[in-house]
Amino acid sequence: MLESPRELVEPLLAAWRRMLLIRGFEQRAMELVDDRRMWGAVHPCIGQEAIPVGVSAALEPGDKVVSNHRGHGHLLARGADLVSAFAELMGRRDGMCRGRGGSMHLADLTSGIVGTNGIVGGGASIGLGVAFAAAYRGTDQVTVVYLGDGAMSQGGVHESILLSLQWRLPVLWVCENNRYAVDSPISERLPAPRVVDVLSRALTAYEAVDGNDYEAVQAAAAGLVDRVRTGQGAAFLECASYRLSYHSLKFRYEVRPEAERAEAWAQEPLGRLQARLEGLGVAASRLEEINADVASDLDAAIRVAEAMEPVTADDALKGTFAAGDDAVRAMTYGWREELL
Amino acid sequence: MIEVDGTTHALEEALMAEMDADDSIVLFVTDPPRRVLERFGPRRAVAIPIAEPSVTGLCVGAALSGLRPIFLWRNVTFGFGSYDQLVNQAAKIHSMLGGQASAPMVIWATYGAGSQRAAQHMQTPFATYASVPGLKVCAPSSASSAYSAMRQALTDPDPVMLLQGSRLPEGATSFPEPAPPTTGWAPQQLTRGEKLTVVSVGHSLALTRDALQAAGAAESADLFDLVWLNPFDPRPIAESVLRTGRLVVVEEAPRPLGMGAEVVAAVTELVTWQGGVVHAVERVAAAPVPIPYAPVLESAVVPGPADVEAAIRSVLERSASTAGGRR
After folding, report:
1. pLDDT tens, B40-69?
2. Residue by residue, what is the 3-state secondary structure of chain B?
3. Per the CB < 8 Å rule, is B100 touching A109?
4. What pTM value is reported for the model?
5. Which of B27, B55, B70, B96 is the best substitution to test chain A (most A C-beta atoms within 10 A)?
6. ipTM of this complex prediction, to 2 decimal places
7. Least CB-CB distance to B88: which of A64, A122, A137?
């Protein structure tokens, strides 16, 4: 078969590479937890990789992203540094957040990732503020706020969406509808299986797409981002997907029907994009080469991160206030002075 | 000299002075103060819906993006729904992000009893906020102290709650322009004496001064004005108690677990470490009941001048034979 035009294939290959990177990152994070080389909670986004990669393809370098607890993919899709991310997960002093944040609080302001968040729906109002600041300054920056369908039960999320519409702020709300809020199916939480059907009377611009179809996500995001960027107000993109892993590695059990999970695996986004690329005539050897490259990048990043200096107890009382550590020193008046 | 007509006016003056100096300051409130709106327009004095949780979070996001939002909640009671955004987001951002950014925002709210609006609207939740690591909390003690606190809050790189007490004076007053941007939060010693140490928290200062006069103890007390509840530096107070051995703390927040409890605990730790003795302690605080409506009930629950005077007399009467706190 003839290779399709470069301008079609190359962006799809780049997207597939990025999706592989996200999945490989999540798989390795799970291994690091198993090996006790990192701690705490990890909320893998395996199965949902097409969404941040498709959305990010529609963004400009200066745009901002506000993420949530399942946020590794959101960061990596925007090009956050792999070593810095792994170093954070492994509690290194030069980790992304100096070992104080961990998986649920990864943030990389240099990549425009204003924060991930351990509170469901906690990023919604923060994203509203990031967009407010952009509007106040008169920039054409777009803010993407990622929400799960679980966050749609949070009152503050609805307040934030309504204010973004009322004030025509430059926000693209991206709802990754993976059908479960921890263990609770959407049918037990919302009056319709699609979030846009719950919100549509309020929304002025929205789309609901198959979130496992990279090209569908990318196309819908591009259209909505363009609207938002040109001052037409906030928009909402719902991407139907499925979380293929546990909710969190802290709680390894499964309540979802096995048949449902098997069906979801058959629809998973990496395989679908790979099939599309093969259909476009990309050689299997090229795909294997990319796969091997990504694995080697990830393994190298872990090696570098693990060799970095770990945080120590001496760092424990530092960095609470931007104004410096005097305030904490005053309030510990000597009993922890050795740590400052 | 700064001439103002009461504390609210002083706070607005300080806000407008900082807004003049820094165009990243934006005020959010359901009903913008007329003078601020006239001077800065709706772009910088933003009228919001009654949506404290999302607008508090909005302030966090705007602060992370280079603005300096100030959110006037009006009564502190309207902010409890925003506790999540303050505690889980604003207060933790700088630490949690490893210092990549902070949330320099100000929450301005009124607190305190005295106008019979009952349990929800007459609260003094000092400990609720001052116990949150990463959140700075100040409760000024006068119009001039409020003016300085507002200017300091609006130039601080961290999130600050400015609590405006219901007992702060609303009459005309004037005071000198404070020294350029202060960053201090240590307790201020206002008078010096040898017999007892008195700490007034927030708007209880005038009441405490009156009580010292009534008890005939104005000349014999080290009087401290505690405006900043977090950060809280107990060291100057402990130095004083090492001399006097007697401590009275006055606040309008309820016991248990109030700011008074923290002052007593920290000062006792420091004094006893030094080999000193705290002979007598009185903690004047509101009773642990929701503030009731009827005036006679309200004043029975909230500390008044007689309560403070009784506390001062009590510590002076006790351990009268023991001079000084140092063994």
Report:
1. 999 999 999 999 999 999 999 999 999 999
2. CEEEECHHHHHHHHHHHHHHHCCCEEEEECCCCHHHHHHHHHHHEEECCCCHHHHHHHHHHHHHCCCEEEEEEEEHHHHHHHHHHHHHHHCCHHHHCCCCCCCCCEEEEEECCCCCCHHHHCCCCHHHHHCCCCCEEECCCCHHHHHHHHHHHCCCCCCEEEEEECCCCCCEEEECCCCCCCCCCCCEEEECCCCEEEEEEHHHHHHHHHHHHHCCCCCCEEEEEECEEECCCCHHHHHHHHHHCEEEEEEEEECCCCHHHHHHHHHHHHHHHCCECCCEEEEEEECCCCCCCCHHHHHHHCCCHHHHHHHHHHHHHCCCCCCCCEC
3. yes
4. 0.94
5. B96
6. 0.92
7. A122
